[in-house]
Write a structure and sequence with these properties.
alpha/beta; about 30% helix; 10 strands; 10 helices; ten-stranded mixed sheet; about 300 residues
Length: about 300
């Protein structure tokens, strides 16, 4: 497959149960002494989960994102920040192929997940999304019971063995079990906004993904619910690799181990998002090498 048209495919893997593609996840370690991709300090000595190389995204003839290369590391929280319209959501949705349904979507470059090309010709989108879960900006529980929301994906994927235990485990991991254990058959729509978002996180992790993508998960929540989601992220990163898009600079500083700053570039009539700087969060917020990053985190634009 050429780099020009990346819209289909699956993840090669080893043998598993019939109907399920099993992915072999190599522990590719990054050298602790290598320089960071964009000058934000040394790379962690951890397994690389995503290795994104020269990513560019188009919708039809319109370029939305360009010149994006970075590595995402296992069991860290990586924040994606930047002004509106700079391609943050396009970027994170490309990590589990959520953009595929958009007419005209095309990705150039490579998105390697544990060394496997997610946009390769043999990639399986269902398996990609099973391993790389996503929670959206606005809580979107199904109009079903709390139990059925969490059990929905395992049932559809044939993961029905000890389903009650699976549902309880996911709710506990999402710090929601104590709130709902006595009303699992009640409608999920009766939960508060913060509880609904934690339910959506429980729904995403019920199938035991490797990665959790969070697209502004607290933007519609009150400060108390936001603090709960942030505390939850600190706990979940010990089990999952987390990538979060946020407009909240303080939130990124509180929860993220590494931060990627995206901004807008203009070349003639072409206006698109691009990665400006990426590194450990303290360096990005206190000693960024690019003046655009310093100006953004200081609140001078955005």
């Amino acid at each position: 497959m050429t780099a020009g048209d990346r819209t289909g495919g699956g993840v090669p893997g080893d043998h598993g149960p019939p109907g399920r593609l099993r992915l072999r996840m190599e522990s590719t370690l990054s050298s602790a002494t290598s320089s960071s991709i964009n000058g934000g300090g040394p790379e962690p000595s951890r397994a690389v989960v995503f290795d994104i190389r020269d990513m560019a995204v188009y919708y039809g003839q319109n370029r939305a994102l360009a010149d994006t290369s970075l590595k995402v590391y296992r069991n860290l929280v990586t924040a994606v920040i930047g002004p509106s319209g700079c391609g943050k959501s396009t970027f994170i949705r490309s990590l589990n192929r959520m953009n595929d349904a958009i007419v005209g979507f095309r990705l150039e470059g490579q998105v390697l997940y544990h060394g496997h090309d997610l946009y390769g010709s043999d990639a399986n989108r269902v398996e990609v999304r099973r391993r790389i879960g996503m929670v959206f900006q606005k809580p979107n529980p199904f109009p079903k019971s709390i139990y059925d929301n969490v059990a929905w994906a395992p049932r559809n994927l044939g993961m029905k063995h000890r389903l009650d235990e699976r549902v309880e485990r996911a709710l506990r991991q999402a710090a929601l079990w104590e709130d709902v254990k006595d009303r699992l058959r009640d409608s999920a729509l009766g939960l508060s906004g913060g509880q609904q978002q934690r339910l959506c996180i429980a729904r995403a992790i019920a199938i035991e993904p490797d990665v959790l993508l969070l697209d502004e998960p607290a933007s519609a929540l009150d400060p108390v619910a936001t603090a709960s989601i942030e505390e939850l992220m600190h706990d979940l990163k010990h089990r999952f690799t987390i990538v979060i898009v946020t407009h909240n600079m303080q939130q990124a500083a509180r929860v993220a181990d590494r931060t990627a700053f995206f901004s807008l570039e203009t070349i003639g009539p072409d206006r698109f998002g691009t990665l400006i700087e990426y590194g450990d969060t303290e360096t990005i917020f206190r000693g960024a090498s690019d003046s655009r990053t310093r100006d953004y985190v200081a609140g001078r634009f955005g």
